[in-house]
Amino acid sequence: MAMREILKFGDDVLRKKCRPVTKFDDRLGELLDDLTETLLASDGVGLAAPQVGILRRVCVVNIRDKRGTIELINPEIVEESGNQVGNEGCLSAPNQWCEVERPFRVTVKALDRHGNEFTIKGSELCARAFCHEIDHLDGVLFTDRVKKTLPQQGGKP
Ligand code: CO
User: Does 101 qualify as catalytic in the annotation?
Assistant: First the structure.
């Protein structure tokens, strides 16, 4: 495992649409391990492959609950309900926090690192993280969805 450098807002790579994963090999496993290591070391709750310069539909979410790190490959939101408005940030935009509206609850369909399909539900922070990371795979940044910019303060990327 290795830490990877996180690209910052303004880098064109963050605006690209990522391609689906088709090969479930050791390289994919290594990318997932590196994403998790980088995420945890950076104290974030989610990290997407394009943030480390890899234009593939891969992301990890870890909201420090019993589920640990959730690895999502080729994820899709298949169901969403309710809404929540809250403070959101991104590891690619240190010290920037904005109020963003997201669904309160989502169901995501994805593949695991071996290519097996699964569905997972998340609400509150977990739903927010799923939506934020899946947006990254389409080159969408949280600032595109801002309701209003807040002064610098706490919150989780
Ligand atoms: Co982000």
Answer: no
Please give the distance, rounded to the nearest whole angstrom, from the Cα atom of residue 39 to the centre of ligand 1: 11
Residues less than 5 Å from ion ligand 1, measured at CB: 90
Cα–Cα distance for residue pair 112/90, rounded to 1 Å: 24
Please give the chain's pLDDT, 157 residues, in tens.
799 999 999 999 999 999 999 999 999 999 999 999 999 999 999 999 999 999 999 999 999 999 999 999 999 999 999 999 999 999 999 999 999 999 999 999 999 999 999 999 999 999 999 999 999 999 999 999 997 666 665 555 6
Cα distance between residue 153 and residue 157, in whole Å: 12
Give the distance (Å) from ligand 1 centre to CA of residue 129.
9
What's the gap in Å between 88 CA and the centre of ligand 1? 9
